[in-house]
Amino acid sequence: MRNLLDLNILDLENYLESIGEKKYKAVQIFEWLYIHKERNIDNFSNIKKELRDKLKSDFNLDSISIKKVEVGNLVKKYLFELVDGNHIEAVLMEHDYGKSVCVSSQVGCNMGCKFCESGRLKKVRNLSTYEMVEQIILIEDDIKDKVDSVVIMGIGEPFDNYDNVINFIKIINHPKGLGIGARHITVSTCGIVPKIEEFSNLDLQVNLALSLHAPTDEIRNKIMPINKVYNISKVMKAIKEYIDKTNRRLTIEYVMLNMVNDKKEDAIKLARLLKGMNVYVNLIPYNETNNIDFKKSKNIEEFKNTLLKEGINVTVRREFGGNISAACGQLRSKEV
Ligand code: SAH
User: Fold this and answer.
1) Can 102 be counted among the known catalytic residues?
2) Is the model's pLDDT at 119 over the cut of 90?
3) For residue 116, which atom of ligand 1 is closest to its CA?
4) Ligand 1, atom nearest to 224 Cα
5) Which of 148, 144, 155, 158 has its CA nearest to residue 178?
6) CA of 89 to the centre of ligand 1 (A)
7) Nearest 5°: phi and psi at 244?
8) How far, in Å, CA of 300 to CA of 316, rounded?
9) pLDDT at position 89, please?
10) How confident is the model at residue 289 (pLDDT cuts 50, 70, 90)?
11) Of 15, 34, 91, 136, which is the most buried if we count CB atoms within 10 A?
12) What integer is the mean pLDDT of 5-31?
């Protein structure tokens, strides 16, 4: 049986039509679920009893639950338990421009990036749409406030769970859903080329970020196994097409690893690769973890200045969440 929160508005309209009901009731149901956050279908007071009973027999409203909350400076990390006993994490961050949530898209991850903690547990399964939507709903309940922006940068590779992630985006973006503006939603991929192509053809104003992390195949092969499938030239071709089709600026994520990808010549090569493209580079100071041998680069400022001199837009990602292991690459699918 499907969860009612797995349905986007079109799915719900189609369902209603298929049972001989009026389409407009989809909006009413969305309002109950996402605006009033009502979970007892019997309380959907503008829906007649017959339809309420039908909804109850066709869908469940299973829920994930908050198992633990850790509070840091301007950041909160949530450990969620799923109905089947698996665990995932999400992080709430307070920026000066509002509250943002970093959501997980899978239990574990199969991409195997050498520097990332989240992939140490192989993928157990994809998250269903409702399990992503509820990360935000439960956080909004906890803080008694709205979330302003969402980044799909937690555990998992979103484009390895493409359909559920796109469905999730449609639900949180809908004005009668969670109402989070498309421009306030960012999906980050390690570079699954066919899915970047599919994403380019969607008519969604959602931001895309690419985890590039290296200017050459030689370096990228060493730290990101996915590069053996989709190498830099394939990924660059896909993002050029994305930028052409959508007219949107793309973010290039680049994690700064000591002595691995942080030399001046790496910055120059990166600049050559990106020259003239509508991108900006977001340098991520590496968050060290106990289990992995990489170290944080000491050259971040110099690397940044080299890129600037070469005419590339660049920012350094703010570091926070480290003391509660809530930073990029530190989220885990295991209860610890
Ligand atoms: N799978 C997606 C989503 C993860 S996003 C992707 O690869 O884009 C998380 C970002 O943090 C990615 O750019 C990832 O490469 C980066 N990251 C992973 N481990 C990190 C660490 N320990 N320190 C800093 N960034 C890290």
Assistant:
1) no
2) no
3) 19
4) 15
5) 148
6) 14
7) -60, -45
8) 8
9) 96
10) confident
11) 91
12) 98
Structural tokens at position 329: 């690459």
Residue 318: pLDDT band with limits 50, 70, 90: confident
How many angstroms does the Cα of residue 119 sit away from the middle of ligand 1?
10
Mutate-to-test residue for ligand 1 from 104, 211, 293, highest number of ligand atoms within 8 A of CB: 211
Token code pair at residue 244: 């052409």
Does any ligand 1 atom lie closer than 6 A to the CB of residue 89?
A: no
Q: Is 328 a catalytic residue?
A: yes
Q: Is pLDDT at 2 greater than 80 in this prediction? A: yes
pLDDT score of 336: 53
* AA letter at 284: I
Catalytic residue among 102, 109, 113, 328: 328
Q: Are strands 250-256 and 185-189 parallel, antiparallel or unpaired?
A: unpaired
Q: Dihedral of the CA atoms 145, 149, 155, 159 (nearest 10)?
A: 140
